[in-house]
Amino acid sequence: MNRLFHLFGDSARWISLVSWSAIIVALATALAPLAFILVVSFSEYHALGGGDGLIAEWLDDRNVNAMGNSLAVGFGVAVLLTVISILAALCFRWCNLTGHSTIYMLSILPLTVPDYVFGVAGRVMFDPSVGLFAEWLPDSLLFDRTSALLMVVAITILKWLPLMIVIADAAIFALGSPIFYQTMVDFTRFRRAVGLVFLPQLGKATALIASLGFLIGFRQHELAYELTSSGAGFDAEMWSNRNYRVIFEFAGVARAAADGLLALGVLFVPIRLIHMATSWYLSNEE
Predict the structure, then answer these.
(1) 246 or 281, greater pLDDT
(2) pLDDT tens, 70-95?
(3) Pick from 212, 178, 214: which is nearest to 197 by CA?
(4) Other CB atoms within 10 A of residue 276 CB
(5) How far is CA 244 from CA 189, 216, 237, 240, in A?
(6) CB atoms within 10 A of CB 141
(7) Could you give the CA distance from residue 22 to residue 254 in angstroms, rounded to a whole number?
(8) How many CA atoms lie within 13 A of 94 on its CB side?
(9) Distance, CA of 40 to chain centre
(10) Among 263, 268, 261, which Cα is nearest to 41's?
(11) Closest CA to 223 of 30, 77, 107
(12) pTM above the 0.85 mark?
């Protein structure tokens, strides 16, 4: 607040009020779905038949399969997105493109394209029957569980990679020109600079990209739906697709809420692991 007064004078009070109001609205928006799931879960508890019905819904074969698919895609996107974006950011540094405003601006463009369009585009190119590359593709590409999920991972990364590269690149650029110059003086080989300067600088960005990548992969809905023809016979069905059907096709609000409660518990584990990894990195950094 003191800095705001120093910069904006009497207007700082209004700026602070607007900022806190925006933060409160954002938090309320983020917590509303969580509150809804918890309230509906408890209110519909008896509709499922109590604890036995709840567990039976969680262990439903289709629910378990869809949850496993989403977790696999989430972890796949997290790992590959992190590795590729960091390597690309290091290539930017090697080519002296770090901090280029035009590249930063262009990275936002894929995010303006809906997931639905990416799914349709992927289907147009890779459908084994009528796709542009059908002649060179196996017949089971988008229907076999493993290959279908791999295609979901690939198309998801295609959309989000430019932004993640910018996040990693911005983390390197945050070192500042003096450190860049000193690094060039101290290290004649770029590989040594990567290991001793750039990679340590990327620690926080790595945790951010990994966590966002996992959540992006886990929540895939329209892209996966269009790309795999509604889940390739349900073998490659994503959890969000299955939950959507439970609500709107099967009218099973109680079941959907129970599944949502399970998803919250499952997501807590990787999010907690990411938090622990970040805390470990920051403690070692100090």
Answers:
(1) 246
(2) 999 999 999 999 999 999 888 888 87
(3) 178
(4) 10
(5) 53, 17, 11, 6
(6) 19
(7) 33
(8) 13
(9) 26
(10) 261
(11) 77
(12) no
